[in-house]
């Protein structure tokens, strides 16, 4: 099985994301050139047995769709590497050995894939970079067996960074960098796209929980930490790629935190808030309110995969 494999079995992706607390799943269809549609989404307790998942799969007809599972932070690594000067069919093998000293386990035990970082049009010739993604084989195998036992064998393993890239592409600033910050419960994920390609991804140790523990009137310090991290990242990105970040897109929040208003007053970039209901059709019962958008954010992004693209 390849990380970013392709399948033409059915229209739409069934995306699944399992944490120690819950299993989230969502089905969406993103036809080329048309508005994506979310047909259904739900959650079950993560300790649900294979029998329970098999029953859900049959009731919902989940075996009709292409099936994808997201890895979780800590289950994989992303590192930037120089693109090896080898034929395309040898790139992954060459990258595997170039990152062997960056892993805390034998590289022979790793599943590797790469994401190209194409040089901007008209850029002065220089080193070409790639993002290498690595996970332990046992992590991939465990995830596959979990769902195989429920009769919903996986076709693709994906990661939140590429899912977030897909959503950021809906808000892309032409010929400029577009950053997207999504705060999860205990951490944040910041990505930067250029021309809908992922150029940078980094984790932040601030999430919704860290903001919520302060009263609304006492959040300035944590907001300033986020502002500093964003500005440093944007400056570094500009120096590294000679691309300025023109827009910061903020992911959905389960409830208003005040972060958007603070950043609008303190960052010199255009700021826009994601509203998935404006960008995708939601046929799922109950729609997709702000909390649901926050909860299912990366599942929606993963479902926006395009054929022929990593």
Structure report:
It is a single chain. With 310 residues, this protein is α/β, with parallel strands linked by helices. Helix content is 30%, strand content 28%. The chain is built from 9 helices and 14 strands. The chain has a 6-stranded mixed sheet. It has a 5-stranded mixed sheet with strand order 11-10-9-12-13, sandwiched between helices. α4 packs across α9.
Please summarize what this structure is.
The protein is of the alpha/beta class and 310 residues long.
Average per-residue pLDDT, rounded, comes to 89
Range of strand content: 25-35%
Radius of gyration: 19 Å
- Helical segment count: 9
Helix amount, in percent? 25-40%
**Multimerization status:** single chain
The general outline is globular
Order of helices and strands: EEEHEEHEEHEHEEEHHEHEHEH
- Unreliable runs, pLDDT <50, ≥5 residues? 1-9
Which key phrases capture this entry?
single chain, 310 residues, alpha/beta, six-stranded mixed sheet, five-stranded mixed sheet, 9 helices, 30% helix, globular
Task: Chart the SSEs and their pairings.
Blueprint lengths: L12 E6 L3 E8 L7 E9 L4 H11 L5 E5 L6 E6 L8 H8 L11 E8 L11 E8 H12 L7 E3 L1 H9 L8 E7 L4 E7 L2 E8 L3 H5 L7 H22 L3 E6 L8 H8 L3 E4 L2 H4 L1 E2 L7 H14 L7
Helix pairs in contact: 4-9
């Amino acid at each position: 099985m390849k990380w970013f494999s392709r399948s033409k079995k059915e229209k739409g992706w069934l995306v699944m994301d399992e944490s120690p607390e819950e299993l989230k799943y969502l089905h969406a269809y993103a036809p080329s050139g048309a508005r994506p549609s979310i047909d259904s989404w739900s959650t079950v307790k993560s300790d649900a047995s294979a029998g329970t998942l098999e029953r859900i799969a049959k009731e919902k007809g989940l075996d009709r769709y292409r099936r994808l599972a997201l890895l979780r932070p800590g289950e994989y690594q992303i590192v930037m590497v120089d693109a090896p000067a080898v034929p395309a069919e040898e790139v992954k093998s060459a990258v595997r050995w170039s990152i062997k000293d960056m892993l805390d386990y034998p590289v022979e035990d790793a599943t590797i894939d790469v994401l190209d970082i194409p040089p901007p049009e008209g850029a002065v010739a220089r080193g070409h970079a790639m993002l290498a993604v690595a996970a332990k084989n046992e992590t991939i195998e465990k995830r596959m067996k979990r769902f195989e036992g429920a009769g919903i064998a996986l076709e693709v393993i994906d990661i939140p960074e590429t899912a977030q890239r897909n959503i950021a592409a809906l808000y892309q600033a032409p010929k400029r960098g577009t950053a997207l910050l999504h705060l999860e419960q205990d951490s944040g994920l910041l990505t930067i796209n250029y021309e809908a390609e992922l150029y940078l991804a980094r984790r932040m140790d601030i999430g919704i929980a860290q903001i919520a523990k302060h009263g609304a009137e006492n959040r300035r310090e944590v907001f300033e930490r986020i502002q500093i991290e964003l500005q440093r990242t944007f400056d570094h990105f500009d120096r590294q790629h000679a691309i300025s970040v023109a827009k910061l897109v903020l992911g959905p929040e389960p409830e208003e935190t005040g972060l958007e208003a603070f950043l609008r007053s303190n960052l010199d970039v255009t700021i826009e808030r994601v509203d998935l209901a404006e960008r995708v059709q939601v046929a799922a019962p109950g729609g997709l309110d702000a909390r649901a958008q926050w909860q299912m954010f990366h599942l929606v992004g993963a479902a926006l995969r395009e054929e022929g693209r990593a």
